[in-house]
Every structure is written in C-alpha cells, then in structure tokens.
Sequence to fold (164 residues):
Amino acid sequence: MQRDPKTETEIKVPVELEPMPEVEAAFEEIEVDAPRVGIIMGSKNDKEKMQPAGTALQEAGIRYEVRVMSAHRDPEKVREYCHAARMRGLRVLIAGAGMSAALPGVAAAHTDLPVIGVPILGKTLGGLDALLSAVQMPPGVPVACVAVDGAKNAGLLAARILHA
Ligand code: RP5
Fold:
C-alpha cells in the first residue's frame, strides 16, 4: 500500500488489467453477429410496407431483425422487447404501424435508443392518423418520423445514425 507523504492518506494505485485476447475475441463475435437495428411493426400485414427498410439496411451491410408486435394488442411484448433492446446490442429501432399508430411512441417510451417511426397508410384517412400518432409526440419522448409508407428512408436514416 502506498501513502501520500504529506497527508498520510492511502494512494489508490490503478490496477493494470491483464490483456485477455480470448475474452476480447468472444466480445467481438457478439458485436459481429448481433443485429444492430430492430424493425418492429404492428401487424404481419405491415410486412410488405416495411420491407424497404430491411432492404436499405441490407444494402448498407447492417444486420437487423424483424418482429411483429402491436402496441395495442401486445403491450407487454412491446415493453419487454424495447426494455431489452439496448442490452441485446440493438442501436436503433424502426417502428411501423398503421391506423392509430401507437407503436413508435410506445417503443420510445420504453427505450432510450433512437426510434424511427414509419406511419403506414391504412384504409381510411390517407395515413394521416398514423402520421400524426408518430410525429406529434410530446416533449421528452422523441420519435423521428419518416413519410407515410416511408420505410426505405427509415432504413437509410438508421444507417446514418449508426455511421454518425
Ligand atoms: C396497426 O393496425 C397495424 O400496424 C396495422 O397497420 C393496422 C391494422 O392491423 P391489422 O388489422 O391488419 O392486423 O396496429
């Protein structure tokens, strides 16, 4: 133990960490395999509209995963997924939903990762319902919102966020 000669108090000596190449390699592998972007959507019927987000990410060489979960129909599933997202290695969420599209906002309420909302055109109102649900978030719960059926830009924006 070393002591400061003036104050006689103990000096904390920084511990030299041993290099652990095998542990580092294991962590690198996790980085390589883990998806960086989570694409979530309110219904399996949204898949076709959300596909361009996946295509844009694939073209940028970014791993992603796709899950169907509705903020209204599966609120617990959305909460659990968003809570675990950062710990699982995800860095951006893309959330697409139509009609009264709560999914982007609910996702943003349950994670501190950036959330990109994709309002999906429903059968009525020209997608305005979903657009306003995603874009009119109250202060403190941010959602970046792309155009109605703008999934391609959501994928491109996620790539820019990851490369910023
Ligand atoms: C939303 O309600 C979904 O995102 C979908 O766009 C819309 C209608 O859902 P389905 O009735 O087609 O499953 O939750």
User: Anything to note?
Assistant: The chain has a mean pLDDT of 91. Helices lie at 21-33, 47-59, 75-85, 103-109, 128-135, 151-163. Residues 16 and 141 are 41 Å apart (CA to CA).
